[in-house]
């Protein structure tokens, strides 16, 4: 896999994590995947997802307060919800919202460095299902790869000071959201379409997503209207 | 939770310092409170200029001001790199060969000024780059995990204070929204949209968005959602900003009188 890219100096963490989320969706045959990281306030934030649809982003965001990701993060254990229909008492906001979005099962796998949990990998399925042992193993391997990519070699070696690295990844994410707004307004499209424009332009021209987002914000790169 | 308690501690410390001075909390108070919280000998805040330079804005004491000025003068150091790289730069031993290679002029000067360790934190939110919070220690050694988290919280608080352009930081509750916006993609998207609507930087777009939310006594997230859903538009007009709802039954809301006018904010970048 593309993990070796982390050794390259101009590696873009958001590009990597978005690609990883897309691979997870293909490999585990789920509908959507998102990666949430803890910030300095102790709250979970979405850093990358297989789909950027606003509807999906809202489902990740609900989980800053309640849901499988928060539980997974707090306990450091995987959380499996094979049937969201019976989860309303546990998560009165999240469970109905996830069902309304068309999902029947959800899973959260911890992102961990030794004993520290830094976030969770979140899987959504449209069919009620239990992850097989193989799928679980594969999902956890992907969660570990994401963890290593975010923390780079320093923290892995020294077991210390990861908060600033998490914040750096989350800050890159904010740049992309800001650029989505800028593009949406310039072209009169919604923010979902703006992201599609941004990403396809980045891929077509082999720009790093974060670099392109920053260039769009500063009006140094013009992305043609759709 | 633990993190929320720390957040309260951070804001209480800032408010206490401001109360001693008899003024509203500002970026300076965030810096001073942070220096005390992590047992540094001093610190400072440098402001980002559109040119990419970090210009000293405030120092807790004369010696810290000299360290800051040194970085500014020689154009190298942790503060310079934190601003350029948009990430924290943590130097636990400024005398180390690594530091000497990375910042030959700065490290020599810093040692002469009695500094052993330097920690620089960007005061930023995505493309909004206000500047850098520097912390200096006499002894070498790194920050503990807790000190690091605190420093990040103080840098966040400094951003909230910096974005509070109408200068009414007396109500800390209204500042807290911005430190939590990392959880709300819609706020960053709206800041981007407003920046285009008004032809200004994202920082100014965010400031206008917040000023409007405060003036209307609404949550930042709700106002942002209205902007993204195109129920609310910001228009530049002479003295300030007019905000129009697209719902015809609602009257235009003019927020130009709330002090968020053009004169109040030096436009940094964009």
Low-pLDDT parts of chain A are: 1-9
| The CATH architecture of the largest domain in chain A | 2-Layer Sandwich
What sort of overall outline of chain B do the alpha carbons produce when their principal axes are compared?
globular
Structural class of chain B: alpha+beta
Outline of chain A, from the CA principal axes? globular
Major pleated sheet of chain B: 5 strands, antiparallel
Report the order of strands and helices of chain B: HHEEHHEHHEEHHHHHEEE
The side-by-side strand order for the widest beta sheet of chain A comes to: 2-1-5-4-3
Q: What is the CATH superfamily label of the largest domain in chain B? A: GAF domain
Helix content of chain B: 40-55%
Number of strands of chain A: 5
Integer count of domains of chain B:
2
Biased composition (Low complexity) (chain B): 261-270
Protein name (chain B): ANTAR domain-containing protein
Region (Disordered) (chain B): 239-270
Keywords (chain A): Kinase, Transcription, Transcription regulation, Transferase
């Amino acid at each position: 896999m593309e993990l070796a890219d982390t050794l390259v100096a101009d590696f873009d963490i958001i590009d990597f994590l978005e690609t990883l989320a897309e691979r997870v969706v293909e490999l585990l045959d789920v509908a959507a995947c998102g990666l949430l990281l803890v910030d300095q306030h102790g709250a979970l934030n979405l850093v990358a997802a297989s789909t950027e649809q606003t509807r999906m982003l809202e489902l990740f965001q609900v989980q800053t307060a309640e849901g499988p990701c928060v539980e997974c993060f707090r306990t450091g254990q995987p959380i499996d919800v094979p049937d969201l229909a019976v989860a309303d008492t546990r998560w009165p906001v999240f469970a109905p919202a996830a069902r309304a979005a068309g999902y029947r099962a959800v899973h959260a796998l911890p992102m961990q460095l030794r004993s520290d949990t830094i976030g969770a990998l979140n899987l959504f399925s449209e069919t009620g299902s239990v992850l097989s042992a193989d799928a679980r193993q594969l999902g956890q391997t992907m969660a570990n790869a994401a963890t290593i990519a975010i923390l780079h070699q320093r923290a892995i070696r020294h077991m210390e000071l990861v908060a600033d690295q998490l914040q750096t990844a989350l800050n890159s994410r904010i740049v992309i959201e800001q650029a989505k707004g800028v593009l949406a307004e310039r072209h009169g499209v919604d923010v979902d379409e703006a992201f599609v424009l941004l990403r396809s332009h980045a891929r077509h021209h082999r720009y790093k997503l974060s670099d392109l987002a920053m260039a769009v914000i500063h009006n140094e790169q013009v992305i043609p209207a759709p | 939770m633990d993190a929320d308690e720390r957040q309260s501690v951070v804001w209480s410390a800032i408010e206490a310092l401001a109360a001693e001075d008899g003024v509203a909390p500002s970026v300076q108070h965030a810096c001073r409170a942070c220096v005390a919280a992590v047992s540094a000998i001093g610190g400072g805040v440098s402001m980002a200029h559109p040119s990419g330079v970090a210009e000293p804005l405030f120092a807790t004491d004369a010696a810290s001001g000299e360290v800051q000025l040194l970085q500014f003068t020689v154009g190298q150091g942790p503060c310079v790199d934190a601003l350029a790289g948009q990430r924290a730069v943590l130097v636990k031993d400024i005398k180390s060969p690594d530091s000497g290679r990375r910042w030959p002029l700065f490290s020599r000067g810093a040692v002469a000024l009695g500094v052993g360790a330097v920690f620089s934190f960007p005061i930023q939110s995505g493309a909004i780059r206000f500047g850098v919070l520097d912390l200096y220690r006499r002894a070498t050694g790194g920050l503990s995990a807790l000190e690091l988290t605190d420093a990040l919280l103080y840098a966040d608080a400094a951003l909230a204070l910096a974005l509070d352009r109408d200068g009414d930081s007396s109500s800390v509750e209204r500042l807290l929204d911005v430190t939590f916006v990392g959880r709300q993609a819609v706020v960053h998207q709206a800041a981007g949209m407003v920046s285009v609507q008004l032809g200004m930087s994202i920082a100014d777009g965010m400031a206008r968005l917040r000023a409007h939310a405060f003036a209307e006594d609404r949550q930042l997230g709700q106002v942002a959602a209205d902007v993204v859903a195109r129920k609310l538009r910001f228009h530049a007009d002479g003295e300030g900003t007019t905000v129009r709802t697209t719902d015809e039954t609602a009257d235009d809301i003019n927020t130009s009188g709330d002090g968020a006018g053009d004169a109040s904010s030096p436009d940094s970048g964009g």
